[in-house]
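ok so I'm stuck.
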Amino acid sequence: MMHNFTSQHSFICKRACVLLSVALLLSFSNQSHAQDPWKNLEKRPSTLNLEKGLLTFNTPKFRLKLAKASQTVAALEPISEKDFDYTPSGRLKQRSSNGMYHLGDINLRLKAEGETVWTRYSTAANRADVLSIQNKDPKIFAAADLSPTLPKNIPLNVKRFWENENGNIALKFVLTNTAKRNVEIGALGMPMIFNNILQGEELEQAHAKNVFYDPYIGNDAGYLQVTRLSGNGPVLLVTPLGKSPFEAYNPLLDDPTPKGIDFEGFHEWMVFSKAYAENEWKAAEQWNNPTSVILKPGQSREYGVQFTLSPSIKAIEQTLAANKRPVAVGIPGYVLPQNTEAKLFLNYVKKVKSMQVEPAGALIVTPTTAANAAYQAYLISSKQWGRARLTVTYADGLSQTINYKVIKPEAELVKDYGHFLTTKQWFDKKDDPFGRAPSAITYDYDKKQQVAQDSRVWIAGLSDEGGAGSWLGAMMKQLVQPDKTEIDKLQEFVNKTLFGNIQHANGPQKYGVKKSVFYYQPDSLPKGTYSDSLNWKTWAAWSHKDANDVGRSYNYPHVTAAHWVMYRLARNHTNLVTQQNWQWYLNNSYETAMSMVKQAPYYAQFGQMEGTVFYLLLMDLKAENWNDKAALLEKEMRARADHWHTLKYPFGSEMPWDSTGQEEVYLWSQYFGFDDKAQVTINAILGYMPTVPHWGYNGSARRYWDFLYGGKLSRIERQLHHYGSGLNAIPVLSDYRKHPDDLYLLRVGYGGQMGSVSNITQDGFGPAAFHSYPSTLKIDGLSGDYGPNFFGYAVNSATYIANDKNLGWLAFGGNLKREGGMIVTEITTASAQRVFIAPLKLWLTLDAGTFKTVSFNPATGKVLLTLNAADAYTPKAYLRIQQDAKGKRYKLNNATERGAYVIPLKETVTTVSLL
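replied:
not stuck anymore, here's the structure
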């Protein structure tokens, strides 16, 4: 039971790490048995010659340690933090053999005039002691000729300099053409090696010692932010030195450091990438136009990066501006619905000279003004669906790229999504031996067919995130945008397939949720049931017994949510739901939540993805005066929260590190008054959920292993807008509503909210995530585990109205204008049911009905609402008002039901004035 939580959280994490790492090795590699890859690394000859010692240099901000023989980084430490290093110095000896990249290495692809093939050169391939260059410049810490560690046939001479740049550290390479012919540099990469290796770390150690890093692939304005897992400062910023654009971000797949669920791999900052674009990346559309440069005989060029410290994550942009780096702020972000007008604010010491949009006409950019004249402001209208790149050229020649994603208006997008799920993905094979009909089943978008079999049985088994994702998305779509035809199908699913197959409807395991209803048991089913083209000899091809296991807690929120949505539809609308009454669905939702802590107690001690549904369920139990059941549910949730409160970082899961339990940990910590733990949670989220001027990374909560478990292209890879985006947006936006002056929180949270729907295709297919590798740069082919992402959108999507001292009046999820003394916002979200007016700290939500516009007068506080017309199933709106206890009190004279004001809707719009 939940009250028997062990306090040995590190033991739990180690156990989970071992179980999942072994499973990963067995399932997704060709090894016949699990081995410790680090032991294999230790057997490799060490070539860094570490025995020759280290060189140590100090600035007021940094302590830099270089391996004396190679002059690559052995440690990069902030002076302000004791015992903290941004680089993996603890594994320096293990990572001292050929092929292991270090900060200070360089990769090149070159082609001399007359040659047709690019030749690759790397300082990491075959180590040799570099030639130290003596110098008297006090700025230069160390300098070396890298010729000994590069092949003799290289047509360039490469020198490297470590320098003090006003207390910051600069890494500079000087490349000189020593040949008698022109030499084209088709690729120049600087490996960014920081300590994101989590293997063997307990959660407290990892949050204290490890970092994650995210790129802004923005050419001359690009940068890399290196943040601690705790979310605490200082933050390491890597910015261009001179003309060294951040053109591409390349995974270092040849580095033998063992990748897995506890290490996503290293990347390199690419200044030039043409050679890759012509070869490995030729099938992908790159974030920036791939370029190269030609060096004439005897000509030299300098390239490099600078390392700077920001005191905190929220101060990154201020630090960039203070270092005369361009800063771009997109409102509401970089995922743009076609019916929403966005804004772009640029802060740089030079004026904008020109702007270019690719594809031409995809965006319309119009100058406007900002509250602070230091910002150059623009209105952005999106016209053409798909990716769009805006290139800003400043008066000094600096070129900044901002990558946008244009999507359909949210209401259209969600409608298409629901239609796709209940038609293309609707599985109705009545003689299915696994009883999966009717349901929305996993879909292969590349093949344009349903996935009825997969050796990862849950994919075709309607459970786990990878299998439940489709029907969960179909259910949550109805919460946002109810459709009678779709709901009729989903009633059949809930009452036949879910309750009674996915979920036990009878017996001692009643309300327990199976791990999969599809399984591999060839001896119990007719010959030919299973495809011979699939590999069934993996741990993931569960037997009937293993698939029937009800002990995985993460399966329960999906089912809880399905019942809860049906309850909300039956309770708040008329004749949408007809097969069962609302009481039946509400009770099933409650019993499923309680069953999780009873039948799946081990993992139930961790925060659950979609755990928000338990809070929403509790609020509805209380509103219905089901007080006994509400008390029991609250007691179980309190026991979990009490346990989390004993832990410094309560973010364990079935993985050694995770980014999805934080959603529920924050929510219950806040609810039960554990404000310190709620703050720890928000800090950690901000450590792995950035805001940068790029739609793929903005608000994209880190996740890098779920392509293995829920994707088609199966590999360890930074996933862009995996379901972590939608789920982590829930606590971030909740925290913003508590701190409405903190625009950073709103930008991060809204980036995640819109990221959750950014990958839906024009015809409505929702993919697992977007592949970030530059060889791919497209959505995954499977629907997989997308459902939890849309859950985040469905329960969290809202319009935010704010007034920033630098940027002025802003709308996120709406079009804002001033009419006299009123701020009028047209609501453009798909649900149009939630609005937060930040200056008033006023949170308005509808259980039924939709907002058309929300207006308020900043001077008087007057609030005016217009609601859209009634429809056949929604004759009434139910309005809830949450407000700051110290501010103006708003109310209506209307009657209330279950804590909501009842507003009869008209055949045209209904206008409501809050008193």
